[in-house]
TrEMBL record:
It comes from the Eukaryota. The lineage of its organism: Eukaryota, Metazoa, Ecdysozoa, Arthropoda, Chelicerata. The keyword Transmembrane helix applies. It is a multi-pass membrane protein. The gene is NCL1_32869. PANTHER family: RIBONUCLEASE KAPPA. This is Ribonuclease kappa. Pfam families: V-ATPase_su_f. Belongs to the RNase K family. One of its GO terms (cellular component) is membrane.
Length: 98
């Protein structure tokens, strides 16, 4: 069955935004994964005590997982957008982008 629910313009926009979101969040997730010091302010650790380094590493890992999960969600959105692009192209309502 065909479930075409996005038009050609929305499909193109969604493909572009999904690709950008995957790239940006993937890079940020990898930077969190390697404990990039540029993101130290984003850790939101309020107290400095003897367990600070452990808390910092745990928070870096948590934020890395969150970014990579969000990048994966953008990948799913891109798959749906590509599916809609194919359906729109079959119906002749969209010109070839590639």
């Amino acid at each position: 069955m065909r479930y075409k629910f996005c038009g050609p313009k929305l499909t193109a926009c969604t493909m572009l935004l999904s690709t950008m979101g995957m790239v940006i969040l993937g890079v940020v997730g990898l930077l969190f994964w390697i404990n990039c010091t540029s993101f130290a302010e984003d850790l939101m650790i309020e107290e400095i005590d003897e367990n600070f380094k452990t808390k910092m590493n745990d928070r870096y890992n948590e934020l890395a997982y969150n970014c990579l999960i969000a990048a994966g969600m953008y990948a799913l959105t891109l798959i749906v957008a590509i599916w809609q692009y194919i359906l729109n192209r079959r119906d002749g309502s969209i010109i070839a982008l590639f």
